[in-house]
Amino acid sequence: MTFPYLNPPNFNLILGDDPNTSQPTDDQRKEALEQSRKYWYKAAAIARHNQTVGLPPQAANPRFMLQHVPKPCVNPQETTSVTLGGSLDLSLAVEGRAHWKTEGPKDCGIADDKIGEARIFPIGISQPTGFNFANRSFYYWKGAQGQKIPYHNYLAVLTLGWCYIMSARAVELFKKGARMEYTGSKAPLWENLRDCQISGVDVRIDICTTDGDIALWWSTILAGSQGWRGILTSRSSKEKAREREFLTPWTLTGTAPVSFAIRGVGGLTANNPDQPLKAEEAFRALANFAHQYDLGDQFQIALTAAMTFPTHNFRRTIAQLPYPTRRSMRTPVLVQDQSVISKYWLEQFYDLSWYMTLSCDPDGLTSTLSGMFWEPGVPRSLASVWLHPILREVLDEEEIRAKPGIFEEPLAIICRIRRPTIAALWLGAVVSGLGRAILDEVDKVRQVPDEVTSAWTRALQGFLDIPGSGPYLDQQTQTISRADVFRLSRVVPIDGNNNPDSLTPLSPWSPPGRVNKTSCAPRIMLHSTCNRHHLRYCGWTWSKDGSGAPDTGLGLADTPRATQSEIDLAASVQPLDPPRWEFEDWIEEHEAEPFAEPTRPNSQSPTDLMDEVQFFPTLGEGETEEENLQWVRKYYTSDSGDGSGFDNDNHTEEDIDDQYVVVD
């Protein structure tokens, strides 16, 4: 869903009679670029305004993302050790499957219920996730509109606390063989913070407690390296299987020499130094701290930042958090009554299990975030033109370049407009430094959509999330759009395979071109005259074979709504001034960029176009247009240097002909 006060363009109207053409003309690309600029510069102006006055209401509420997210696997009877991501290190994983139901006419014999492909969820890691304080994004946190601007920015401190809380909760859910433990590394505890100045301490924090066990907990999560760890043990049905210990996905270790010191009252001594705090105890300690400092929605965004740590571990990147800052020497008033904790904060803890499920799906979380840029009215052939203003102009202004760290801030705020249910998740991704990696994925125009997390969060990611409209078959031309062929391929089984996830597109953008009905596989031809079929998500089971009652998640009826102030702002704010380049200058300016090479008939990279041609031949059905194939062959074997994405010495025209066969 998107908010209606800023309507995105529909490039299919620009392409005219054949909205699926794979080769837009320069005039069509020029018009698409102008419409893209109009949209993105308006969105950027709204975001820049909110950077000044504060976040829109509800933007920091993470609960909207939990629409149909299932609970995590509790006390799994069997786990799997696998290698995931960019590392050879083993991960502890559990498996689950999505359940789908076919909607639409049933008199054609189509299968009703379908079970998705088994998915791997890493719930244990071999190496802790590294973090530092090098992020400048949201260095000055202004909070939501209507709230008092906090004196302090403790996003990083709160994020470290949430990582512990989720790890402790994972240990409690995993049960047998799981434990939390302190490592012995601690931040120093002082009665008088002024004494820390002579000791070279970088950050001094009053932890607002007289409890020795809570003070010890604070000293461990603010240790310079690794002050604690959560441990899970592998399980197998094989009697002689060797047990192996793994870390919880939110276990972390500092990689930067930043030292903390904390202030206690009366020389605090822990009563149970060998017994780490339970999840709820740690949550109440963290919430009490946030309440004393009036940190407001920092508490919520820190949770979403902590959710991205397993993705950092999966991608082998270091999480980068904002350096803790304070705008005054104001000391918080010590309040012992923890009943003042906001009911919204308590709700976050009660919903913690659902947040953990989404957090343990690095691929799904990445596709959810990158899906913010996908637009239904943008075909694949114009995707790069659509993305160009936001990736190459709005975020490349001199004013933004001059302020390191605010590069991703406008994007996080724009997500409130583009995908309201995951606005808080985007804010958290920027706080943890994941925003830049997401931009790199989108910049390649190769982000892979995920229908499961799209259904979980109700944040659209690709063309398969939309069933389409009208008849599949054009009676006049006897053709079907490639997008509809792919939709039918997921609904109609292949040789008894009733798994819709076995056919997942490599791109979220709608593929170009149309396919002759007679060139389609018989299973597609059989349903080409049906009314629309589509798959509806029905739930999730934590089992290898999909057995058991599906978990439908919270099923939240509450969705984000645009406030009147947001609507008024969109109507009144003036778009940022786009650069007054001529289209030919834009082409020349970006000649070297992989997504906008001027020698090609469209704006895709060589690899993107090869994927486009491969879209259906790899499924063993469909046809590739001869003129498109000829152009790819020419580009593939060119000695002009344009085909830098391919190795001309190792490929011949025969290789191409073998790989891309035109089906008559």
Overview of this protein structure:
The protein is built from 23 helices and 19 strands. Helix 7 crosses helix 10 and helix 13 runs antiparallel to helix 14 (423-431). The longest helix has 28 residues, at 26-53. It is globular.
Keywords:
globular; alpha+beta; 13% strand; disordered C terminus; 23 helices; three-stranded parallel β-sheet; five-stranded antiparallel β-sheet; 34% helix; 664 residues
Briefly say what this structure is.
This protein is an alpha+beta fold. Helix content is 34%, strand content 13%. It is globular and about 85 Å long.
Low-confidence parts, pLDDT < 50 over ≥5 residues? 579-664
Strand proportion, as a percent range, falls in 5-15%
Distance between the termini: 40 Å
Number of beta-strand segments: 19
Number of helices: 23
**What's the number of structural domains?**
2
Radius of gyration: 26 Å
Structural class: alpha+beta
Sheet with the most strands?
Answer: 5 strands, antiparallel
Helix content: 25-40%
Q: Which assembly state applies to the chains in this document?
A: single chain
Give me the secondary-structure topology:
Layout: H1 12-15, H2 26-53, E1 80-83, E2 90-103, E3 113-115, E4 119-124, E5 129-135, E6 152-153, H3 155-174, E7 179-182, E8 189-190, E9 203-206, H4 212-221, E10 228-233, E11 245-247, E12 252-254, E13 260-263, H5 279-292, H6 298-307, H7 309-315, E14 319-322, E15 325-326, H8 343-350, H9 352-359, H10 362-370, H11 383-393, H12 398-401, H13 409-418, H14 423-431, H15 435-443, H16 451-457, E16 473-474, E17 479-481, H17 482-491, E18 514-516, H18 522-526, E19 534-541, H19 564-572, H20 583-589, H21 606-614, H22 626-636, H23 653-659
Parallel strand pairs: 5-12, 5-14, 8-13, 9-13
Antiparallel strand pairs: 1-2, 2-3, 2-4, 2-19, 6-15, 7-10, 10-11, 16-17, 17-18
